[in-house]
Amino acid sequence: MNVIETRIKDLLIFEPQVFVDDRGWFMESFNQQSFEKALLQRGLDVPVFVQDNHSVSKKGVLRGLHYQLPPHAQGKLVRVVQGRAWDVAVDIRKNSDTFGQWVGVELSTDNHRQFWIPAGFAHGFIALEDNTQFLYKTTDYYAKECEGSIVWNDDTLSIAWPVHEDISILLTEKDKNAVNFSEI
Q1: What pLDDT score was predicted for residue 184?
Q2: CATH code of the domain in which 102 resides
Q3: How many CB atoms lie within 10 A of CB 128?
Q4: CA–CA distance from 71 to each of 10, 65, 66, 91, 115 (Å)?
Q5: Could you list the residue range(s) of the whole structural domain that residue 31 is in?
């Protein structure tokens, strides 16, 4: 497994080794020992995953930027198993040196990448193809009373979403009514 560090030390991209032959391909989609080793080598906390989620989105569906606050803050290990998505994590830890900074990465069927987003980050993605299937492991259960949402196109954050003429943004009411970054 190849581990790619990002400009925010806590956010990591994992590229599993994919074995391809005339039958198709095989990969380990998760290995606890390898995951722990990668985090510990970088001085990061090792989480316990308690829930797996799976969503399917049409092209242009934008989910986020979502987060959960303590005592139910969630870390997420995310990947796309069909289609393509642009995935973004924003540091919302107020005492962090990277507070308000973001990292974006394309996740797809073809690149098999996974993105580790620890607790303390807002998370969102836009589906770049129809039938984009997104899987994520979480470190805490969903808790409505702890959830929050930052508007996806916040001026302060200036996230470089890959929005083109051929993509119409589709949002839920919750995401349409999300707050500005300055309000969190």
Answers
A1: 87
A2: 2.60.120.10
A3: 22
A4: 20, 19, 16, 17, 23
A5: 2-183
In whole angstroms, what is the distance from residue 14 CA to residue 39 CA?
A: 11
Q: Residue 120 is which amino acid?
A: G
Partners of 126 in beta bridges: 62, 86
Cα separation of 27 and 87, whole Å?
A: 21
Comparing C-alpha atoms, which of 168, 161, 114, 127 is closest to residue 6?
114
CB 87 within 8 A of CB 77: no
pLDDT for 181 equals 96
Low-confidence ranges of the chain (pLDDT < 70): none
How many domains is the chain partitioned into structurally? 1
Angle at 154 (CA atoms; ends 148, 156), nearest 5 degrees: 110
Please report the pLDDT score of residue 164 as a whole number: 79
- Catalytic residues, by residue number, are 66, 136
Q: Check residue 165 and give its pLDDT.
A: 74
φ/ψ of 173, rounded to 5, equals -60, -40
